[in-house]
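I'll show a record.
***
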Amino acid sequence: MVIAHIGDSRIYTISQSHITQVTTDHTYVAEMVKAGYLTAAQAKTHPSRNQLTRVLGCPPPIDVDGSLCSLAGVESVLLCSDGLTDMLSDEEIMHIINQDAPPQTRVQALIDAANHNGGVDNITAIIIDVKGETN
């Protein structure tokens, strides 16, 4: 999978037993965590956690992260906004995505669960089920 990424929307790969965040948030707090000034737990409640350091629409140059990601062993890919990930844990997301239901049903279940947990921001989610050979 080829990825180009700016901002704090995320891409995850999911198998039956594992969820992996593939992208890195482009936020002030994520940079503080990377530099060792905050823990991941502290970042979740930091008042500046949504302050973006990179966004589309700013004057050039824009620094875009690009990468390749193997889909070997991956069953689903999730693209989502922080409105989802701020409301649900990785384990809750993985549990819903691994349900035996069509992608549209699982997306609605993610949105419903995030809204049930507070839903304080816009919530966007796309699930891509990976089928066939991944060589």
